[in-house]
Amino acid sequence: MTLGRQRGGRRAQTVPVPVMPDIFPSSIEESLQDWLKQRSQPDSPESPQPAEGICECCRQPDCPHFEALASTIRKLEGDTRLAAEIGQSLLHKHEAHALESTRIKQDLERQILQETAADLEAANARCTHLTTELRARTMEVDKLRIFKFMVRQADIREENLRAKLEDAKQELAVSRKAELTLESKHKKFMAKYGMYVFLFWS
Q1: 81 in helix, strand or coil?
Q2: How many domains does the chain have?
Q3: Distance CA 152, CA 161 (A)
Q4: Residue at 156 is within a domain
Q5: Which of the listed residues 6, 73, 94, 113 has the most CB atoms within 10 Å of its CB?
Q6: Count of other CB atoms within 10 angstroms of residue 73
Q7: What is the torsional sign of CA 76, 81, 84, 89?
Q8: Structure letter (DSSP) for residue 21
Q9: Which residues, by range, are in coiled-coil regions (predicted)?
Q10: Tens digit of pLDDT per residue, the chain (202 long)?
Q11: Terminal CA-to-CA distance of the chain, rounded, Å?
Q12: Does the residue 80 lie in any domain?
């Protein structure tokens, strides 16, 4: 009875464990890598199947984890395909946006160039107009300077003429005074010696 229990206990202890927790993740990773390698070949099947009834993760027949692994791989395959489609769509959108951005940039550069050219032409025309106006104003200023100089010369000439007129008036006054003096002397002389002068000339 004791031997039977011991043998039974030994049998219970020697039952093989299908999956060890410490090697299960690495076995799944290896299986995924093998499956990806098989998927890269053109003749690979759609979903992994156990080769000759042996599971690739634990090398055991009838592995209970194979269906979960296959479901996970199928889900990953679908997610990968969806991600590829999304990535391709995003790539197309990015390319379209890049082309649109390039077109908009070229249009903006062309518009800026045209506006700059128009501004330069307007500025050139404005500079030409201002140059012409400046020359005209410069000529007017020169004319005003000449006119001012002529007016100044005329004022000087007028002052000189006024001074000469005053001198002439003074000389005329002196001459008039001298004439009156001579006339008075002549009258006195004639009154005193008029008879003798008359007799002398007669």
Answers
A1: helix
A2: 1
A3: 14
A4: yes
A5: 73
A6: 19
A7: negative
A8: T
A9: 113-178
A10: 444 444 444 443 443 434 444 434 445 455 555 655 555 554 444 444 545 556 666 666 677 777 777 788 889 988 888 888 898 889 999 999 999 999 999 999 999 999 999 999 999 999 999 999 999 999 999 999 999 999 999 999 999 999 999 999 999 999 999 989 998 888 888 777 777 766 766 6
A11: 219
A12: yes
Contact status, residue 57 vs residue 27, Cβ threshold 8 Å: yes
Question: Is residue 82 within 8 Å of 43, Cβ to Cβ?
Answer: no
Residue 49 parent element (H or E): none
User: How far apart (Å, rounded) are the C-alpha atoms in residues 178 and 97?
Assistant: 117
Its domain, for residue 96, covers 62-201
Does the pTM of the predicted model rise above 0.70?
no
The pLDDT value given to residue 141: 95
Residue 200: both structure tokens together: 């002398």
Residue 158 in any domain: the answer is yes
Query: Which residues, 6 or more positions from 64, have their beta carbon under 8 angstroms from its beta carbon?
Result: 18
Q: Rounded to whole angstroms, how far apart are CA atoms 110 and 106?
A: 6
Instruction: Give alpha helix (H) positions in 16-65.
Output: 24-40
